[in-house]
TrEMBL record:
InterPro entries from the UniProt entry: SAF
Transmembrane segments: 33-56
Name of the protein described by the UniProt record: SAF domain-containing protein
Coiled coil: none
Lineage top rank: taxon: Bacteria
Leader sequence residues: none
Region (Disordered) location: 1-30
Swiss-Prot/TrEMBL keywords: Membrane, Transmembrane, Transmembrane helix
Residue ranges annotated for the SAF domain, each copy included: 60-123
């Protein structure tokens, strides 16, 4: 006769009787806030991918200034560079494919380095502008000292009286600086003046009687006419 020794149940466990099915595993409880956070993360990732895709698809090659460009500057190939940017449709720009059409044209205003170029920056009018002429005023090193002229600055071209004249005051003509050619011995300044004043000013420049005055309280054309009239009365 054989006897069987009953098995000892392990601590913490109930003995399972023969033929009884095992108990199902415990069911995990999902926390609602964890599920919500996961769904939000998925949504944010999808939105970020969509925004990135749209931005990349909207990027385009446009032209910017490769350096500081002055007003009336004649555009050369090295003055421009192409950049890829994402722009709103309301922002004016020039596609990089139009670079060839800009070479040789003048700027209507100054453009800082890195700034976008637009059609408004390109001068459509003939140069010099209608009704004006360019007079080149040569300045000695002493005359150019202290002057900080840039294209677009408003100045006065002052003409001293000829040495043969007696009791005659200098006259002046308002003008706008178009270009400055500086050198070691002085400077040559291209000044836009009224066409009717160009011949007399050129004669004064050739005779060494012309200089440039730069100030903040600039006279009007009427003031210049009055000054010329007064000089005529004094002769």
């Amino acid at each position: 006769m054989t006897t069987s020794t009953p098995k000892q149940a392990l601590p913490g466990r109930r003995p399972v009787s023969a033929g009884q099915p095992p108990a199902p595993p415990p069911r995990l409880r999902r926390r609602p806030w964890v599920v919500g956070a996961g769904l939000a993360a998925v949504g944010l990732g999808a939105a970020a991918g969509l925004v990135t895709g749209v931005a990349l698809s909207d990027s385009r090659e446009v032209l910017v200034a490769a350096g500081d460009l002055d007003k009336y500057h004649v555009i050369a190939a090295e003055d421009l560079r192409s950049v890829s940017v994402s722009l709103d449709s309301s922002v004016a720009s020039i596609p990089s494919t139009d670079v060839a059409s800009l070479i040789g044209k003048r700027l209507a205003d100054g453009v800082p380095e890195g700034s976008l170029l637009s059609s408004a920056d390109i001068a459509d009018d003939a140069y010099p502008p209608e009704g004006t002429s360019v007079v080149r005023v040569t300045l000695t090193a002493q005359q150019a000292q202290g002057l900080t002229l840039e294209p677009g600055d408003l100045v006065r071209v002052v003409v001293s009286a000829p040495s043969t004249a007696t009791e005659s005051e200098p006259t002046f003509t308002p003008g706008e600086v178009a270009a400055v050619h500086a050198g070691d011995t002085g400077a040559v300044v291209d000044v836009l003046v009224a066409r009717g004043e160009a011949v007399a000013l050129s004669d004064a420049v050739m005779g060494g009687r012309a200089s440039i005055v730069q100030d903040f309280d600039l006279p009007t054309a009427d003031d210049a006419d009055d000054s010329t009239a007064d000089d005529g009365d004094g002769e």
